[in-house]
Design a protein that fits this description.
Distance between the termini: 30 Å
Radius of gyration: 17 Å
Largest sheet: 7 strands, mixed
Number of domains: 2
Mean pLDDT: 80
Number of strands: 9
Strand order of the largest sheet: 4-3-5-6-7-8-9
Low-confidence stretches: 1-38
Length: 166
């Protein structure tokens, strides 16, 4: 997986030929302005497939962006087709499906868990948080509940990757 580093510049960039007032992101050749917002090291662009009317999906997208992920949100009308294409079993599904490189991430997985998974680069298909647990990113609210992040094997196997206690 390609590594990308979000680089933040401060006043000393005049020497590099860039006039900066205060602090500003630096764009590298081949990067986009979205990448400069502190993109997480090692993370390729995350594509999030979601319903255009889902507020909790929008909250999760903002959680990921705040954590430094470069996110492209795509509103789709047929989420079932996305889940079938990405190999998400119905009983492990949630409201949105995300893809980073060869990995799939289903539901309200916390950004640090995804970052650790990407850093480890295991031979797995991805992670899922089934349903919409209260207290997960995008589903904040009173009385948060512990929930499991499930690792999906490329062979269809499933194991608990982490238990989150918000």
């Amino acid at each position: 997986m390609k590594r990308r580093n979000g680089v933040w510049a401060v006043a000393g960039l005049v020497a590099a030929g860039i006039l900066v007032v205060g602090a500003a992101p630096v764009l590298r050749p081949g990067s986009s302005p979205a990448d400069a917002g502190g993109a997480v090291a090692g993370a390729a662009e995350m594509v999030v497939y979601k319903s255009p009317t889902c507020g909790c999906c929008n909250g999760w997208v903002e959680h990921m962006r705040a954590a430094g992920f470069a996110v492209r949100a795509e509103n789709v009308s047929d989420m079932h087709a996305v889940k079938v294409r990405e190999g998400i079993p119905l009983e492990l599904s949630s409201c949105h499906t995300s893809v980073v490189g060869d990995y799939v991430f289903e539901g309200h997985i916390p950004a640090p868990v995804i970052q650790r998974f990407l850093d480890e680069a295991p031979d797995l298909a991805g992670l899922t948080v089934p349903g919409m647990p209260v207290g997960s990113p995008g589903m904040e609210g009173p009385n948060p509940v512990p929930y499991e992040v499930i690792a999906l094997g490329r062979d269809g196997s499933r194991t608990v990757y982490e238990t989150v206690r918000p």
